[in-house]
Amino acid sequence: MPIAFQGCSINRMSPGWVRLWVGSIVLRVDIIGPALPTQLLSACESQVLPLLLDFREMSYHSHDEDKLNCDITTLRYQLRVCSIESAVDNKIFVPADCLERALSDENITEELRRYRIADDAVTSYICREAGKTFLTLVSISETGAIEQFMRRGFTDANLPISLERISNADNALSVFKHLWAKEPDRIHDFCEHQWKFMAPVFDREQYRYDPFDPKVILPFTHRGPDKPGGFSVVYQVLFHPAHFPQPV
Q1: How far is Cα 134 from Cα 125, in angstroms, rounded to an integer?
Q2: Are 59 and 75 part of one and the same domain?
Q3: Are residues 141 and 77 located together in one domain of the fold?
Q4: pLDDT tens sequence across 210-227
Q5: 213: domain range?
Q6: pLDDT tens, residue by residue, 146-156
Q7: Per-residue H/E/C for the chain
Q8: Rounded Cα distance, 82 and 68, in Å
Q9: In terms of DSSP H, where are the helices of 28-95?
Q10: In angstroms, rounded to a whole number, what is the distance separating the alpha carbons of residues 49 and 25?
């Protein structure tokens, strides 16, 4: 259970660091010297925590990229904060309810404004048919490319994309070669980041599904112990509630 005190809570502790919530902001915190949870919370309450701890932004990136060097008001930062690690494969996904909030008119307009894009047609395109495409571009710091994606007719229906599909593309997927023919790492980044926005939402009334692509991130928040059977190993999982919604 999380430890909480006057707006501060610790919901995970590991040797040398904790995951700390302060209001709506979540931080990974590296501990400088020994400290008990009660001492950390006391420091939080007294607002001297920055003097006692080395703050690091909690994200799925490597430690070198983990330093707090990102404007916390950006949509990219918001996506980082609400990302969750799948309990099955330890990959990061953005829950469906967070996607919905991220794609609010206000967030889209503000993010486009940062790139001096003030075109209602672009906003409408994102809202109607390219929300996941837009958020993938945001997550790889290529928001400004959204106009080229719109001009070439690329939509979420084209997802997921792969390097193989792009290499022979002469349709909407040609946007990748048009933008990044000399920067293949950008194409690779898009291919990797798209999956965190594509975790499936399950239907309580549907019991059979077509096989998922091996890269699909399953939205499970907890995995129970393995239980060997005659021909397989079975374990219990918990869905993220936004991916296994209650019937209306």
Answers
A1: 10
A2: no
A3: yes
A4: 889 999 999 999 989 988
A5: 71-248
A6: 999 999 999 99
A7: CCEEECCEEEEEEECCEEEEEECCEEEEEEECCCCCHHHHHHHHHCCCHHHHEEEECCCCCCHHHCECCCCCCCHHHHHHHHCEECCCCCCEECCHHHHHHHCCHHHHHHHHHHCCCCCHHHHHHHHHHCHHHHHHHHHCCCHHHHHHHHHCCCCHHHCCCCHHHHHCCCCCCHHHHHHHCCCHHHHHHHHHHHHHHCCCCCCCCCCCCCCCCCCCCCCEEEECCCEECCCCEECCEEECHHHCCCCC
A8: 16
A9: 37-45, 49-52, 75-82
A10: 14
- Per-residue pLDDT tens over the stretch 22-81: 444 445 454 444 445 555 555 554 443 443 333 333 333 333 344 334 455 689 999 999
Q: How many domains does the chain contain in total?
A: 2
Strand partners, 85: 92
Measured CA distances, 3 to 9, 13, 37, 59, 131 (Å): 5, 10, 8, 21, 36
Domain termination residue (choose one: 69, 86, 113)? 69
Tokens of 124: 């409408």
Same domain, 163 and 211: yes
Q: Are residues 202 and 214 in the same domain?
A: yes
Which residue, 47, 69, 91, sits at the end of a domain? Answer: 69
Q: Clarify whether residues 115 and 20 are in a common domain.
A: no
